[in-house]
Design a protein that fits this description.
It contains 5 helices and 26 strands. With 348 residues, the chain is mostly beta strands. A hairpin with a 5-residue loop joins strand 16 and strand 17. The longest helix is centred in the N-terminal third of the chain and has 14 residues. 33% of the residues are buried.
Length: 348
């Protein structure tokens, strides 16, 4: 009998992702926005603060951040549905985007230098020795995303790509579901020398350090139709979540809400370990496993389909997560214990 149980356990480990394991309690956190795993460190963003943890014993090494406009301070962003900070990791430093500035920090959180930026919504993503970044432009009175190439001093060199922004289209009814994806739409991921930009049709466009498009990753994910159950759950999120409820209730009272027919094709994506993980909104029934595709970050070659287990914050977004070296790192709220936990899942 023992051999049967052992054999069954091996089969589960081979053919299915392992269940998430709680690795640590994180009592310092209030409402985390993102987690980034790299080398021997975990970086967790929470408002204007950066928490740096060891990824071996998960102890807090340093807390960085102070609210303000001065040197070594961060200002909160005026869009409630956007995170105050984003960071990108380099071999020997961190690139930190905040309102009106870009800060360069050492890997242990020491400030090195800062550059003031006139456009508050630009989020710079390192691309070789340059940067890629989003800016909003108006075209025929409608909002568009311009994806630009910037030099090492954050000066714009050229526009690489432009597409219509689905969440701001003039006087039409507003789709709050698309607004909830705004952070994903303006914060891009990159490998060492390739920037990956998703567009609303589910295509991911890849650009090199010269700003040239080198390949595209075509959508392989299914559209999920918004039925009555999804609409009801979305309405609950927007009516109760502090980030959305004020404008949502006003738009709803004015009959200006339209959820559309489908959820966004891409729920989330990550670029790690020379792979691009593209996650859909299609969930395996009875689980938190999301249908996903994995592509080569080198040339966009399709590698495999996979189901990735991600615990949900709500119907529209997972709790903050990252993928690194075949593992999912996720910061999950334990409501019963009133604390945040680090969960780690091995991807098989």
């Amino acid at each position: 009998m023992k051999k049967i149980f052992t054999f069954a356990a091996v089969l589960l480990m081979v053919f299915f992702p392992m269940a998430a394991e709680k690795m640590a309690s994180l009592p310092d956190l209030m409402r985390p926005d993102a987690i980034i795993s790299d080398q021997n460190q975990l970086f967790i963003l929470d408002g204007i603060y950066i928490y740096i943890y060891s990824s071996t014993d998960f102890k807090l090494q340093k807390k960085v951040g102070k609210e303000g406009l001065g040197p070594q301070e961060f200002k909160k962003i005026f869009f409630p549905n956007l995170s105050d900070l984003t960071i990108h990791l380099r071999a020997d430093h961190l690139v930190v985007n905040s309102t009106g500035k870009v800060s360069i920090l050492s890997r242990n959180g020491e400030f090195m230098r800062e550059t003031k930026i006139n456009t508050p919504l630009v989020r710079f993503t390192p691309l070789g020795k340059k940067y890629g970044g989003f800016s909003m432009v108006q075209e025929n009175k409608l909002a568009h995303a311009a994806v630009n190439l910037y030099d090492s001093n954050f000066k714009k060199e050229k526009e690489m790509f432009r597409y219509s922004l689905p969440w701001d289209q003039g006087e039409k009814k507003r789709n709050p579901i698309l607004m909830a994806y705004m952070d994903r739409d303006i914060n891009y991921f990159a490998s060492a020398d390739t920037l990956f930009v998703p567009s609303p049709d589910g295509t991911i466009h890849a650009f090199n350090e010269k700003g040239d498009k080198v390949f595209t990753i075509q959508n392989r994910l299914a559209k999920i139709k918004i039925d009555a159950s999804i609409a009801e759950q979305a309405d609950k999120v927007f009516s109760e979540d502090i980030r959305f409820k004020r404008p949502y209730k006003a738009d709803k009272a004015a009959n200006m809400i339209d959820f559309g027919k489908y959820l966004p094709i891409i729920r989330a994506y990550r670029v790690k370990d020379q792979k691009v993980y593209v996650i859909s909104n299609k969930k395996k029934e009875g689980t938190n496993d999301y249908e996903s595709c994995v592509f080569s970050a080198t040339d966009g070659t399709f590698l495999k389909n996979i189901y990735l287990p991600l615990e949900d914050n709500n119907i529209l977004e997972p709790f903050p997560f990252d993928i690194d070296k075949g593992k999912i790192y996720q910061v999950v709220e334990n409501e019963e214990q009133e604390e945040w936990e680090l969960h780690v899942t091995l991807i098989k």
